[in-house]
Fold this sequence. Notes:
This protein has helices at residues 17-27, 31-42, 49-55, 57-67, 71-93, 101-119.
Amino acid sequence: xxxxxxxxxxxxxxxxxDELIKIASAKELSYEEEKELFDQIKxxxxxKIEKLIASEELMILKLIKMLGVTKEQQxxxxxxxxxxxxxxxxxxxxxxxxxxYFKFRAWVVRQGIxxxxxxS
Length: 120
């Protein structure tokens, strides 16, 4: 009889949204840590961009749950939201105005998710 090997890598499609939210809450950073990362990115340390965007995953998943996104669309909506955050962050890095990343990130993520739902 064939034995099943345990999975070493968990893909988001394999988990329930509530389980993903629990996992993402462990990655969440405090506001001070996010602000410090943002300042480091603004000073030229582009290696911190992925960490800052990954820390926003909890907010993304909560918005996906709030908007009632189907399980089939969750991965594409998550990717679209991360792309939207990345674009906002890149605009902020090059801007001389006061940072709006922390004020508008939830709105940008929501708009990215809604765009993705509209196009599919």
